[in-house]
Design brief:
three-stranded antiparallel beta sheet; 157 residues; 3 strands; alpha+beta; 6 helices
Amino acid sequence: MTTETIDAPRGGEMVESAFLTQLAAVIRAEDSYGQWDDKTDADIMAEFIVTKEERREIPIIGDPDPDVMWRVGKFYDAVGLLIEKRSGCMASQMQKMSHEGFGRVVLIAGKLVVVSKHLRDIHRFGFVSWEKLAEAGEKLVEAAVETIDTYPDAARA
């Protein structure tokens, strides 16, 4: 008798999340020729999933890969857009990364900093599962909306 093992999908099962939906929309917005129309959201966001084994194999010496920098930008773009949807305040992203993979990302709504995140080991940016990816994005959005609710005059200035 033979048993066949079926590998689980990369990152586990896709979860329902407003953040993942927004992230997919941000990525799809760059597909002006419709090349990704037949791909699932999981297909176009697969690079955001980085297993523990893959993470260990990624060298942290040298310049961060441009694809990683693109992923970081898209992640925080999705955070900013979801903040805007939930609060009505546009949140713009600014980031500064060193060639060593260290840096900072801030999202600003009006005159208010709603997200401030120091990043290190940017070479290894990614999440072990869809659930962790969604959780990270949602957590940033919720905290930002709470900050906007606390200081609405500064956020709308």
